[in-house]
């Protein structure tokens, strides 16, 4: 007979999921009600309003997709890409590659703009791609690359797309709630995110928002969207229908309670304060890591505060370090992906996990573990360096 | 400033979600861990094993899709249907119509077999459809139609498909855990379900299982699956990969804790006992409703115990009754859909909600509400009739 599952109590400082606040966990376990219950519909409306605040948009087509971030990505591409459409896809990490897959699976033509992993999307290359190709329908790029920890200049990239009459699809999975994002101000047409990063909710929901321009393009599609579940015309009838909601699918009731609570917490803190908090604790973590002699993959100007890709000291088996952190400190940090596997760790400071206790735990656990393994690091400096930031 | 959301405490006797056990709610709110954590991977393996038990299959390709039942449906169709494929789709309610949408959106040709809403799929019509069409790749039908409360003879329908060399896709959203289902014994090739019906978990996850034959067809596809999120070749690498799991998407960690706990509870009760419990409480509810003079839409032989479609007494505004039940008793029952809107209610007895307290609450609340509205019903008999079943 299988036993109930009791998870260990971890500190989550990987690339996500991040630590979930007890308030959000408590909301998650409130009694389930019907997805057509008037009280649930009232809650859905509040979720939409708070999500508009988080994305900085007034678009009524702002809602959570009932599935993880990869489904949010797919919701954007499957609705906006029709067979034969040209899409400029910027790739500077794992998730640009997934965007290419999306374009091609829906019959589009992906025009790739490649930048090295660990560097941002180069606006000049995007300009050149537009100059070399006519009738480009969409520009797609990742705002905050979770695989490398790089922030790209979304505002400038959107401006280039607008100058060329193209729509934009922007991945903000790791930026929403952690880095400046202004969906309406920057003119983003389709944006998706995840709940398990800087919003500190369990994974499983993907907030999205579409501009009026994007909605018009969706409404004028020549072919039926090759997905029933993600057909935004149908989803809008459910989420956008007010009192006259048309049944589409059964919403994940409890997951939405949790998402609601995480948005209440964001509203209480204030969006700009949340961005500043991520930057502040990043500074302390950086000071500690650098004092230890551990360097960053990404140049400072493009570095994400919430996702720190740092070099593994030479001669150290990075997987062994992660295993020891988990076994001895219940601390999770992330491995490198793709070409960066074995070379970097990804240390997350996202949402609720972005706090002083976690910064100090991570620094001391890492220092002790690396010292015991005989790694060439500078000892006994990291905590003081971080504390200096905190008392500055 | 938006306030935290505290849902009312409802009794859920609609078409789903059903009441969620406090054990499952408690599991849902356990601390989040990483989706690649060794402890989480161990839990995933237990979920797979218990799901094999629930579906009665030994297929290793048995796993939960990280999205609601409609995505589970789509996972079956998007992987198995290629452009030009002929699919016989049986429609005797809402969900057969959604299957047709799925077939056509993926470029298949849907050959419709229609039966009246409230009646089961007629095997003779399916035989005739196979006789009239060559090279049919798939037969798709709904085992337990949530929109009407009808059970179709899945075993016979699968046999017809096998005799004609076709694969089967079967919707068991409302049957899993509530009515006899034998995926391997009946030779079902692709099956999907939901968590929010007879498994009494919150909505948001869709268990699926594929036979070896189905997997071979998926592996030999000529075109790439037009979905990245639901591409079963990729999902299998994640759920089927054992220790060497390939990252695909971030699993909905907490929702899977809850699903795990609901499967532990099913194992503890025993699958056959769960089926018998649904039948037993249905008998009591039926006795009470009939004593009140309320009749059933579906003939007894095809009636789902967990979803009771009953006629609204003449002259009664059915929506007003449902509003009063919700306002005065915190009791949710379901409305009729499509052609049955306004004519029937759908009373669910699913999973944890399938118990004596709920049966008695529903009968007395309905009787009091209808009496107060002056409906022509027989009074003061329903509870005694139900109690007679319980003491028999």
From TrEMBL, chains A, B:
| InterPro entries registered for this protein in UniProt | Aminotrans_V_dom, Aminotrans_V_PyrdxlP_BS, PyrdxlP-dep_Trfase, PyrdxlP-dep_Trfase_major, PyrdxlP-dep_Trfase_small, SP_NH2Trfase/AEP_transaminase
Do you know which CDD domains this protein is assigned to? Answer: AGAT_like
Per the record, a Pfam family? Answer: Aminotran_5
Names of the cofactor(s): pyridoxal 5'-phosphate
Under Enzyme Commission nomenclature, its number is 2.6.1.44, 2.6.1.45, 2.6.1.51
> Positions modified as N6-(pyridoxal phosphate)lysine?
197
Biological process (GO), any one? glycine biosynthetic process, by transamination of glyoxylate
Keywords assigned: Aminotransferase, Pyridoxal phosphate, Pyruvate, Transferase
Q: Where does substrate bind?
A: 346
Name the enzyme's class: transferase
The superkingdom listed in its UniProt entry is Bacteria
* GO MF terms held by the record: alanine-glyoxylate transaminase activity; L-serine-glyoxylate transaminase activity; L-serine-pyruvate transaminase activity
Instruction: Spell out the coiled coil positions from the record.
Output: none
Q: Which part of the chain is the Aminotransferase class V domain?
A: 32-336
Q: Which family does it belong to?
A: Belongs to the class-V pyridoxal-phosphate-dependent aminotransferase family.
Kindly provide the name given to this protein in its UniProt entry.
Answer: Alanine-glyoxylate transaminase/serine-glyoxylate transaminase/serine-pyruvate transaminase
């Amino acid at each position: 007979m299988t036993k109930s599952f009791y998870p260990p109590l971890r500190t989550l400082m990987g690339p996500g999921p991040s630590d979930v606040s007890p308030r959000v966990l408590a909301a998650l376990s409130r009694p389930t009600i019907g997805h057509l219950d008037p009280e649930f519909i009232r809650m859905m409306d509040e979720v939409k309003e708070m999500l508009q605040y988080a994305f900085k948009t007034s678009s009524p087509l702002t809602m959570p997709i009932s599935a993880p971030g990869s489904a949010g990505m797919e919701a954007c591409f499957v609705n906006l890409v029709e067979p034969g459409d040209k899409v400029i896809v910027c790739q500077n990490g794992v998730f640009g590659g997934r965007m290419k897959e999306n374009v091609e699976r829906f019959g589009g033509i992906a025009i790739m703009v490649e930048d090295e992993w660990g560097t941002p999307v180069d606006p000049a290359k995007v300009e050149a791609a537009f100059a070399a190709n006519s009738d480009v329908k969409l520009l797609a790029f990742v705002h905050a690359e979770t695989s490398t920890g790089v922030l790209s200049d979304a505002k400038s990239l959107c401006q280039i797309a607008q100058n060329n009459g193209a729509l934009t699809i922007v991945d903000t999975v790791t930026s929403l709630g952690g880095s400046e994002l202004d969906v309406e101000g920057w003119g983003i047409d389709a944006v998706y995110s995840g709940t398990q990063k800087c919003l500190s909710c369990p994974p499983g929901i993907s907030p999205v928002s579409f501009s009026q321009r994007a909605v018009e393009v969706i409404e004028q599609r020549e072919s039926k969207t090759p997905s029933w579940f993600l057909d935004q015309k149908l989803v809008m009838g459910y989420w956008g229908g007010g009192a006259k909601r048309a049944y589409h699918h059964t919403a994940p009731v409890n997951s939405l309670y949790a998402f609601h609570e995480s948005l209440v917490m964001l509203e209480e803190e204030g969006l700009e304060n949340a961005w500043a908090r991520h930057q502040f604790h990043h500074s302390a973590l950086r000071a500690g890591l650098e004092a230890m002699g551990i360097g960053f993959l990404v140049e400072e100007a493009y570095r994400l505060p919430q996702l720190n890709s740092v070099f593994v000291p030479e001669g150290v088996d990075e997987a062994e370090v992660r295993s020891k952190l988990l076994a001895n400190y219940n601390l999770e940090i992330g491995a490198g992906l793709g070409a960066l596997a074995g070379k970097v760790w990804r240390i997350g400071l996202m949402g609720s996990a972005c706090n002083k206790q976690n910064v100090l735990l991570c620094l001391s656990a890492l220092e002790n573990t690396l010292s015991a393994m005989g790694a060439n690091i500078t000892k006994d400096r990291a905590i003081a360096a971080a504390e200096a930031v905190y008392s500055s």
